[in-house]
Amino acid sequence: MTQTPRSHGRKSIAASLKPRDLMEETRLARAWTAQVITLFPQAFPGVLGESLTGKALKEGIWQLETVDLRDFGEGKHRNVDDTPAGGGAGMVLRPDVMGRVIDHALGRNPGPLVYLSPRGRRFDQQMARDWATLPGVTLICGRFEGLDQRVLDHYRIAEVSLGDFVLTGGEIAAQAMLDATVRLLPGVLGNADSTAEESHSDGLLEHPQYTRPAEWKGLPIPDVLMSGHHGEIAKWRRRMAEDLTRQRRPDLWSAYKGRTDGKS
Ligand SMILES: C[S@@+](CC[C@H](N)C(=O)[O-])C[C@H]1O[C@@H](n2cnc3c(N)ncnc32)[C@H](O)[C@@H]1O
User: Fold this and answer.
1) Ligand 1 and 211: CB distance under 6 A
2) For atom 1 of ligand 1, which residue has the closest CA?
3) Is 213 close to ligand 1, i.e. is its CB under 6 Å away?
4) Which residues form the tRNA methyltransferase TRMD/TRM10-type domain (predicted)?
5) Residues 157, 158, 164, 169, CA torsion sign
6) How far, in Å, CA of 185 to CA of 74, rounded?
7) What domains can you pick out in the chain, each with its CATH number?
8) 84: Cβ below 6 Å to ligand 1?
9) For 47-56, which contacts have Cβ atoms below 8 Å and span 24 or more sequence positions?
């Protein structure tokens, strides 16, 4: 049985260390860690290995470890699932197998244990912000009909959903949630301001964005954005963000108004 988790990105440290390397080692030891329990470790890092999250992974700002559920399976064929008690369609991930993999994972990562599940609390920007302040997180990707309930109860595992739809497995949800979290870690985005004004950062959707050419298919960029007047541009962007939020997301708009009314 190979129970060595696969890690992605920089993690190994050379035996002889110079002062600069030692700083590097401390940084890596403290790197935010995502541990992912999955039947498909080859699906990682997937899109997380690209662009800014991929660069941050290589630089050791965060680290990713996959734990292959199959390694903890039963018997010659490493079975991980069985038919649902009481009958019905599909298969259920076995509690003994899940218990072994979870015990293994709990010893490796101090972060919270989360089961990706359409029944869970809906993931949002605030949850990404909260996760980014922790040492890391361990995500369990379900497959088939999901986990035996006793595992969830025994380990008091939080269930988190990507949205109100059903995926085939938790891997895509894991990558989406990790992407949203990792980009909030210090040093991942080039421009720290870029998270300050984007959608969901302060309860509003983002204003429209434009770039060159100044005219495209007869459509100009709004004059104010070409005026060079920073105060007017900021006011216009705020107004557009508020209009968009009011039109598209009345739920966000009333929460925002509840927070800001009386403040100005
Ligand atoms: C086919 S789904 C199981 C759905 C489950 N039988 C139900 O009805 O709630 C298989 C796995 O995909 C993952 N999954 C599916 N939809 C998800 C969502 N919206 N958010 C997070 N994970 C999801 C979960 O890990 C789940 O165990």
Assistant:
1) no
2) 168
3) no
4) 35-254
5) negative
6) 38
7) 6-182 (3.40.1280.10), 197-260 (1.10.1270.20)
8) no
9) 47/175, 47/179, 48/175, 48/178, 48/179, 48/182, 49/8, 52/183, 52/188, 52/189, 52/190, 53/178, 53/179, 53/182, 53/183, 53/188, 56/182, 56/185, 56/187, 56/188
Residues 6+ apart with CB under 8 A from 64: 7, 8, 9, 33, 34, 36, 44, 45, 48, 57, 178
Q: Is the CB of 175 under 6 A from ligand 1?
A: no
Calculate the CA 76 to chain-centre distance.
Answer: 34
Q: Quick check: 112 and 152 in contact, CB under 8 A?
A: no
Q: What is the pLDDT of residues 232-254, one digit of tens each?
A: 999 999 999 999 999 999 999 99
Pocket test for ligand 1, best of 98, 160, 166, 178 (most atoms within 8 A of CB): 166
Ligand 1 atom closest to residue 169's alpha carbon, by position in its atom list = 12
pLDDT tens digits along 89-119: 999 999 999 999 999 999 998 889 999 999 9
Nearest to 83 by CA among 74, 95, 92: 92
First-to-final CA distance of the chain: 63
Question: What are phi and psi for residue 204, nearest 5 degrees?
Answer: -115, 155
143 lines ligand 1 (CB under 6 A): yes
